[in-house]
Amino acid sequence: MAEKITFAPLSYTGWGSLSYLSEEVGRLQGQNILLVTDPFLHEMGLTQKIIAPLEELNLTINVYTKVVPEPPLAVAEELVAYAREHQSDMVIGLGGGSALDLAKLAGVISVHEGDVKDYLNLSATRKLLQKGLPTILIPTTSGTGSEVTNIAVVSLVSTKDVVTHDFLLADVAIVDPELTMSLPPKVTAATGVDALTHAVEAYISRNASPVSDALALQAIQLISDSLRTAVKDGQNKEARIAMSYGSYLAGLAFFNAGVAGVHALAYPLGGQFHIAHGDSNAVLLPYVMGYIRSSCEKRMKDIYNAMGFNSSYLSQEEASRKCVEELQRLVEDVGIPSSLQGFGINEEALTSLTEDATKQTRLLARSPMALEKEDIYAIYKAAYDAVTFK
Hints:
Blueprint: E1 11-13, H1 21-28, E2 32-36, H2 39-43, H3 48-55, E3 60-64, H4 73-85, E4 90-95, H5 97-109, E5 135-139, E6 151-155, E7 160-164, E8 172-175, H6 185-204, H7 210-232, H8 237-257, H9 261-273, H10 277-292, H11 297-306, H12 316-333, H13 349-358, H14 361-364, H15 373-385
Parallel strand pairs: 1-8, 2-3, 2-4, 4-5, 5-8
Antiparallel strand pairs: 6-7
Helix pairs in contact: 4-5, 6-7, 6-8, 6-10, 7-8, 9-10, 9-13, 10-12, 10-15, 11-12, 13-15
C-alpha cells in the first residue's frame, strides 16, 4: 500500500543551528518581518537573538507578544488582523507550541479572505487556496513538534479545534537545543511528556507506516532516556540535546501517522479547564494506553523496549502491562499530577468532558481500538479515580 510521507521543506537541527537564521531570511527575501512570541521570552531577552542579526540586515521587525498558553480563537483573530495591518511579508514564530501555531495562522490566514474561525476543522465555511507568507519556526521547548506539522490549534469555549493544511507547513524549522536551556522544570516536564505522547500515539496509530515507526521509536528512546535528567538539571546540555531531537522526531512521526485517543480526550481538558496541553496529555496517557492495551499489545511491547527495558522474557500481554506502568512512573517522576483530581477537576465534569471528546472524530479515527462514548467516560473516570486498567 502506497504511503504519503511529508516533511517540512527544510530543517536545521542541533546546537547552534540558530546561526542559520539570517541566511534563510535572506533566501526567503523577508523585508517586513512579523516576530510572534510570548511576553516571557521577550522580557528575558531571548527575542534579541532573533532581532539583532536581522536589524544588521536593515530589516523591519514587528514584535507581537500577546501570545498566551492554549490561545483562544480571539487571540488568533487579533494576530491575523495585526499581520494584515502591518503588511507583513514574512512570519517568524519563536516559543512553544502556542507561539508557533499562531505564527502559522498569521502566515496563511492573513493572505486569505475571512477570519480564522472560517477555516476551523469543525466549522469550516472556507477553504485555504494558496500558500501563505514565508514562515520560519523556532521552538524554545522540546515538546509540541509544531515546527514540522501542518496543524494549528486554538481553544474554543469548551474544547479545541484546528486549522490543518499543508499550506501551514513552515518554510524553515530551526531546532536549536541551546534555546531550551532556560526552560523551567515544570514546562520541561509537560512539554517533554507531550512529545513522548506524540511518539507513542504515532506508533500505535492506524495510519502508522515503517517510516513513522522508525521516527517514533527513536523519539521514544531519546525522550525516555533524557526527560528525567532535563527536568532535574536544566543545564545538562546532553539531556537538552536529546530532548530537542526527540521532540523533533516525534513531531515528524505524528505529522505523518497522526495522534489519537490521548489527544482527543486531552483537548476538552484544555478547553474547559485551561490545563496546559502537555499536562492534559500526560495525565491521560497511562489511562488511555491501559484501556486500549489489548488492541496493540505487540506495539506496546516495542514501546517498552524503546523505553530501555528488556522484554525478551515477557509475553506481549505482560510487556504491554509493564509499558503502561512505566508510562505512569515517568509521568509521576517528572512531577505531573497522576489524576484529574490533581488538577482540581470535579467528578461532575466528566460528563461534559466526554461529550466534547466524542466530537474529536478526526483523532479518534486513528485509535487502534474504537472508542465510543462509554469508553471515553470510563477512561476519564479511571483518570479521576487514579485507577489504572489491569
